[in-house]
Amino acid sequence: MPRRRTAQKSLSQPSTSARGTQHGSEEDDEDVAPPTQNQRQNKTFSDAEHGQHVANAVRYILAADQFKTPINRSAVSKAIDCHGAGFRTVMNSAEKVLQEVFGYRMVNIKNNETSSGKFILVNKLQDSLPYMTFDKEVGDRYVLLFLVLSHIFMNGEICSEASLMKFLLKLGIIEEGNMLNELYGNVMDLVTKDFVKERYIRAEATENSETQEKEFSWGERALEELSPRAVMEFVSKMYAGDREMSSWPQQHDRMQTLEQEHHHDGDLE
């Protein structure tokens, strides 16, 4: 009986050589194991690696901006294979390059006052609208955009779908029951879909659920690239004799308020 207990004990415990072999195997596994996500995120880059990541990020962002829709930071991170703290450093450098070399500023998109992880590029030179430099086909679209944004601002910074339709009818851009225009194509699709995706216009459903109409206001890109003064100067010139901007007291006061806020924000930066 004692001998059998001893035998059981020897079978239940690995020998010293077996333990040594097992331990050595674990060390080998650690040597070849891929880096963890935490290790990848905390990786530090050489100057050359950092510069390459920045160049790749800038290239990706400029290409994505051609679609004029918000760019997801996680998509940039995945595209350039850079993560965590290293990615934040790369994006800070990329933002500086975009601003100083290409004249673009990155503006974060918020949903209900919280960050969405997305951003857009806006022209640093306010009022330098794309239609001034783009080819004719694209330029025509942005002439329409400028008209619509002007109407929204002069209407109290928000307008209903019915008000916008009436405005476009008055200009002869659309006809009653016909949204197609030889120059712009489907005008309402362009305004309510394309310009909304590009963040020039914000569209929100009205509280009246019966009509299912939308209300339109300036989007993030318009707020960054266009000034109310440019709008009011444009509108005043549309009237014979260059009507004074101050003859629209409500809009004129709002313009001055926004300009003061803009200068204050600039001083804080």
Automatic annotation (TrEMBL):
Gene3D superfamilies per UniProt: MAGE homology domain, winged helix WH1 motif, MAGE homology domain, winged helix WH2 motif
Biased composition (Polar residues): 8-23, 35-45
Region span, Disordered: 1-49, 245-269
One Pfam family matching this protein: MAGE
Domain of life: Eukaryota
UniProt-listed InterPro entries: MAGE, MAGE_WH1, MAGE_WH2, MHD_dom
UniProt name for this protein: MAGE domain-containing protein
Source species of the chain: Nasonia vitripennis
